[in-house]
Amino acid sequence: MQSRSSRGFLLSFLALANPEPCLAAPPLAPASTTPECSCYQAAGNKEALFLNHSFYDFRSLGNETFASNLTTPPAIDETQDRGIEPFTSLFFDTGFFGDYFTPASWSNNASEAAPVAMVNSHQNVYLARDSPESPLHLTLRTNRLPSFQSTSGLETTELAHMYASIHIRARVSGSPGACAGMFTYLTDEQESDIEILTRDERNTVRATNQPGVDPNGKVIPEASTPITITQPGGSDVGSWTEWNDYQLNWLPGRSEWLINGFSKLNKTYGVPTQPSNIQIRLWSDGSQWPGNMTVGGLATLDIEWIDLVYNTSREAPGATCERVCTIDNFARDPRPQTASGTVRNIPMRASVLALVLWPLWAAISL
């Protein structure tokens, strides 16, 4: 069991030791990119170009061995306060998905600001379907126990994303007091989020760049902005309990948020400038942001697919694209088209110290 504070300390230390680190993260499986594409354009943004593409479609897993005889794992109980439960499926530990994403297993103790201890568990990350005839989806779960909040999350093994477009199709349901987040993360000051709070109105989503408070604890108004869910037809009466496409574009000097293909917000405040990992989490700690879930409460985050295009701080400077593929909003396939351009990334060189510290990070992530 490991606290987020120790993980954040190591990531911060890496950033201090090498302000623009290039960490030797495990490589992605070859299937993560499309051979005929040399770079990609994200849906909703034709300016930024990215060298890497990863698409995880949980709906397509219906015929796999690990998708048969699915049962929902029981909710964590009061005795399971160490976060040592095993994976619910080999899918999360091996292969294309397991090489890039890993379920979180760290914990945080209670504090004055966050009065409920938080314990991540692999048992809260599982494959599910609405009915025997329905396609599969990925589920993250959180539930409130008398002495702690059992939570869940996915974190990339790649720590050196340097600009990305993160796109998921998801829905959220359950008790007030949970936060469903999709975000880039290095430190609490280098973070960009799209978040759903189950205490909010059902058509409200939060678009946030950190830090959210100044050194005196005063809220920074530019940090977090509520945005509404626009349905595919154009109406702003959507609900996060229904399936929606959420997209966060992390670009040089600018963050963009889109919902169902509609541009909702551009922000220049607090845009991350350092290589980061990507996380998807469902959590609560009783703090002011998510609220304090009632004991016995439970919430879920369901995901049909995760689509990522990104650069890393290892990319060669001035890389050019001979064949650009546009990631289509609806078909979810790269669409090759003849084009050329320069990758919009300023890659950084690795320091020896960063490469020495990488095995330590890998060890404590287990």
User: How far is it from the N-terminal to the C-terminal residue, by CA?
Assistant: 9 Å
Proportion in β-strands: 35-45%
Helix content: under 10%
Order of helix and strand elements from N to C terminus: EHEEEHEEEEEEEEEEEEEEEEEEH
Number of strands: 22
Number of helices: 3
Radius of gyration: 20 Å
Mean pLDDT over the full residue set = 82
Shape, per Cα inertia axes: globular
What class, by secondary structure content?
mainly beta
Largest sheet, in brief, is: 18 strands, mixed
- The low-pLDDT segments are 5-32, 344-366
Notable features of this structure?
four-stranded mixed β-sheet; globular; disordered C terminus; mainly beta; 18-stranded mixed β-sheet
Can you walk through the features of this model?
With 366 residues, the protein is mainly beta. The protein is 8% helix and 41% strand. The protein is built from three helices and 22 strands. The strands form two sheets. The protein has an 18-stranded mixed sheet that branches. It has a four-stranded mixed sheet with strand order 3-2-21-22, with no helix packed on it. A hairpin with a 3-residue loop joins β9 (137-144) and β10 (148-156). α1 (4-17) packs antiparallel against α3. The longest helix is centred in the N-terminal third of the chain and has 14 residues, at 4-17. The radius of gyration is 20 Å and the shape is globular. The model is unreliable at 5-32 and 344-366 (pLDDT under 50).
